[in-house]
Amino acid sequence: MAKITLSNLRHSYMPNPKGPEDYALKEIDLDWTDGGAYALLGPSGCGKSTLLNIISGLLTPSEGRILFDDRDVTDLPPDKRNIAQVFQFPVIYDTMTVRENLAFPLRNRGLDEAKITERVAEIASMLEVEEMLDTRAAHLSSDNKQKISMGRGLVRDEVNVVMFDEPLTVIDPHLKWKLRSKLKELHQRVRATMIYVTHDQTEALTFADQVVVMQDGEVVQIGSPVDLFERPQHTFVGHFIGSPGMNVLPVSENAGVVTLEGHPVTLEGAISGQGGKIELGIRPEFVSLGDSGIAARIRKVSDVGRHSVVEAMVGDIPVKAVVEGAVPEQGEAVHLVLRPDQTRLYRDGWIATEART
C-alpha cells in the first residue's frame, strides 16, 4: 500500500486556460496516509472523477505532481502505478467461474498456483462467496457480481491503492447497505489504502475515515464525518451533508451584532474578517421550539419517522428545525431557539466565527 500525495495539482481540458473558470480542477494539495479509507464526495461535475483519473494515470494533470510513497508517478502510465479499480458496472468475465475471476489478476502477474489458491480462498471468505466459487459469473445477481468485482480489486495484496468509482450506482437500494457494510469490513481487515468516489453522502460517511468534499473543482473541506456534520467550513458542506441540510440564512451585521430579521443572534464565537456576503449557518438539529426566542410561524411539518422536520417562517425566511415528540399545527405562532455553540457566521460561503475552546 502507499501514501498518496497530490502537490499543487491543477487540470484543464482546454489547451490554453486563461483563468480559474477554465480549470476542471483548481489547485489541490492532499496527503492520504498508507492504509487509510478516504472518500471523494461531491455533486456531478465537481471534479472528483477527473481527480480519480489523474491518480490512476488515465489523465496527466496540467500542473502539479502525484507521488506514491514520495515517488513521483505523474508521468507513469496506469499499468506502472500498481492500482486496482472497481467501477460503477462490475468488471468481471461472465464465462468464467467466481473462482477463475478472483484468480485472474493473480495469474496475470505470474503468481504460483499455491499462492493463488490461498489468496482466492481468503478473499472468498471475506466476501462470503465460498459457496458460489464454482458458479459461472453470468448466473450471479447484480450485487454478487459487484462483490466479485470488489474481490478482484482486493485479491492483489501488493497494490498501492484500491479505487472505487461510484461502485454501488447500479445496485438495488435495499442491497446497498449490505455492500457498504461489507466494504467497510473489508477495509478494516485488509488495511489497504482505499479511495471511494461518490455523490452519495451516506456512502461516503459510512465508508471513509476522512472525506474530501469537492465543489466546482475545489476541495472545500477535508475531515471526519463528525467534523463535516458538526462544523462545516463552508455553506456548501453544510447544505450538501445532512438530511435536512444546514439552514443557511441571510442576516445583517452591525458593530459585531448579528441579527436575523431584526432579532439579535448569539454566535459560537468572535467574528473574523470584514465585508462580503454574510449568512448564518445552523443545522436543524440545533434549532428548537421554546417559550421565548425568535418569533416565527409554522409553514410545514414533515413526519420522517423518528422525528419531525418543522419549517417555520421568520418573516420571509424559512428555518427548519428537527423536533421530537408533539409538534405545532401549520400556521401556529412559535418561538425558535438557536443553540449558540452551533450558530455560525459565514462570509462569502466560508466560516467566519471562531470556535470557543
From TrEMBL:
Residue ranges occupied by any ABC transporter domain in the UniProt entry: 4-241
Keyword list, A-Z: ATP-binding, Cell membrane, Membrane, Nucleotide-binding, Transport
SMART domains, sorted: AAA
Family annotation (Gene3D superfamilies): 2.40.50.100, Nucleic acid-binding proteins (2.40.50.140), P-loop containing nucleotide triphosphate hydrolases (3.40.50.300)
UniProt xrefs under InterPro entries: AAA+_ATPase, ABC_transporter-like_ATP-bd, ABC_transpr_FbpC, ABC_transpr_MalK/UgpC-like, Mo/tungstate-bd_C_term_dom, NA-bd_OB-fold, P-loop_NTPase, Transp-assoc_OB_typ2
PROSITE patterns in the cross-refs: ABC_TRANSPORTER_2
Gene Ontology molecular function terms on file: ATP binding
Stored Pfam families: ABC_tran (PF00005), TOBE_2 (PF08402)
Family statement: Belongs to the ABC transporter superfamily.
Name of this protein: ABC transporter ATP-binding protein
Organism: Aliisedimentitalea scapharcae
Lineage of the organism: Bacteria, Pseudomonadati, Pseudomonadota, Alphaproteobacteria, Rhodobacterales
